[in-house]
Design a protein that fits this description.
Blueprint (H helix, E strand, L loop, with lengths): L1 H38 L2 E4 H7 L7 E16 L4 E7 L5 H6 L3 H9 L6 E6 L12 E8 L5 E9 L1 H5 L4 H4 L1
Parallel strand pairs: 1-2, 4-6
Antiparallel strand pairs: 2-3, 2-5, 3-4, 5-6
Length: 170
């Protein structure tokens, strides 16, 4: 009789341990999944952003586009930088097939039919912000159709192409 009681107590303790362990593992999995989904960002081109329309408003996204140089404006009174980016391909294979980044940026800014997006940032203009630079901006699309950036990265291939030594070119 005493052995039966000890056996039941041991099984009960083991069951509690297994259930407790499963609850802890489930909680960890839930936290990992929920934090991953909360911090996930979409990476879109200007065309893809425009196509999604209102469903993307207020969500964190990352957009890539070519900078139109004559739209760059910095207001010192409000510390607000605004500029326009135009659609360019987001796939590196497509960019390489069209002659490389410099060629794609040049074609993008000179095509009046490309989709455009106005970017607003509360940062001073970076040195590389110029005509035909590739802007990669992270932020949110506002209900007014403007993109409010909290992070701005720039690539300007033409600046570096001019500095390539002759012996490297050929």
């Amino acid at each position: 009789m005493e052995n039966t009681i000890n056996l039941k107590a041991a099984k009960s303790g083991r069951t509690k341990f297994i259930v407790g362990g499963l609850l802890i593992i489930s909680a960890i999995i839930y936290l990992i999944i929920s934090s991953t989904l909360a911090s996930a960002q979409f990476f879109l081109t200007v065309d893809e952003l425009k196509a999604k329309g209102s469903e993307i408003i207020g969500r964190d996204v990352r957009i890539s586009g070519a900078v139109l140089g004559d739209t760059i404006h910095y207001d010192r009174d409000t510390d607000t930088l605004t500029f326009t980016i135009v659609h360019m391909p987001g796939d590196n294979n497509e960019i390489n097939a069209q002659g490389g980044l410099a060629a794609v940026l040049h074609e993008a800014v000179n095509d009046p039919s490309r989709q455009q997006l106005t970017v607003v940032s509360k940062n001073p203009p970076p040195d590389l912000l110029r005509h035909e630079a590739q802007a990669i901006v992270t932020g949110k699309l506002g209900e007014d159709g403007m993109f409010y950036a909290n992070e701005l990265l720039l690539r300007c291939p033409t600046k570096y192409e001019e500095a390539v030594p002759a012996q490297v070119e050929g």
